[in-house]
Amino acid sequence: MNGSDDDAVRLRSVSRRYGAGDGAVPALDDVSLAFPRGTFTAVMGPSGSGKSTLLQCAAGLDRPTSGSVVVGGTELTGLSERRLTLLRRERVGFVFQAFNLLPSLTAAQNVALPLRLSGRRPARGRVREALRQVGLADRARHRPTELSGGQQQRVALARALITRPEVLFADEPTGALDSRTGREVLALLRDMVDDTGQTVVMVTHDPVAASCADRVVFLVDGHVHGDLATPTATTIATHLTDLETPRP
Ligand SMILES: Nc1ncnc2c1ncn2[C@@H]1O[C@H](COP(=O)(O)OP(=O)(O)OP(=O)(O)O)[C@@H](O)[C@H]1O
Ligand SMILES: [Mg+2]
Fold it and tell me: What Gene3D superfamilies does the database record attribute to this sequence (predicted)?
């Protein structure tokens, strides 16, 4: 794969092993991928295939055991924790599979947190707008325990959007949503790419959700196992069935 400055994120021969010796788990094994600027990529694959590990390595949240990750032209290998934190804050948004909201803060305070952490005073209108975009304008003062799972997931998305990141990584952002709310979230991600040229990388198990992307990358046992351009729910489902069919 040729690297280019048009890539928002580039991984070259990235491996991530957990543990050592016989018990070591190769969560990612020699993965090379590029996510071009202004594109929407879906990542699919069986449970345990390395999707969350891929996102966390690509976002600079986890360090690969070997290989190189470049975000917005900056090589992450060898960056100090401090530089890495700054880069994440300035360029990357991340929606965790397990939301990771702070329980003592309201929805609005959770959404404002990334701006506060970077020393910016969040304009109330901006927080309100982010909550409105995810359909939660009327839940600003609720704490996570007072919100449903799907509402917490949308607060996590609003929190990732508030800094207008160059790249948004979203780990199953529609996993806890009903189909209508899920469609609204997908339309929001699509608009980020089409209207403002942001880059989105989303993990999903849902072929319909993945069909909103420009490309689907499939992972199996920590390896890239093919990809599909301009996917449809049908071509995705067929590819998934092929992956799950044991080979003789
Ligand atoms: N902290 C860890 N320590 C040891 N092994 C881990 C750790 N995190 C993940 N793994 C292992 O790495 C592999 C990939 O995990 P990962 O979370 O990336 O999978 P996934 O594709 O996101 O799965 P799911 O669809 O269930 O979320 C799994 O076998 C998992 O058990
Ligand atoms: Mg996962």
Answer: P-loop containing nucleotide triphosphate hydrolases (3.40.50.300)
The three-state secondary structure class of 192 is: helix
| Global pTM value | 0.94
CATH of domain 7-244: 3.40.50.300
Question: Are the C-beta atoms of residues 217 and 43 closer than 8 Å to each other?
Answer: yes
For residue range 65-120, list pLDDT tens digits in order. 999 999 999 999 989 999 999 999 999 999 998 889 999 999 999 999 999 998 88
Whether the CB of 50 sits within 6 Å of ligand 1: yes
Contact 10, 35 (CB under 8 A): yes
Residue spans of the domains in the chain: they are 7-244
> What separation in angstroms does the CA of 216 have from each of 43, 69, 83, 231?
6, 20, 31, 7
- What does the alpha-carbon distance between residue 40 and residue 27 come to, in Å, rounded to a whole number? 23
Question: Which residue has a Cα nearest atom 12 of ligand 1?
Answer: 27
Q: Position 68: which residue type? A: S
- Under 8 Å between Cβ of 72 and 38: no
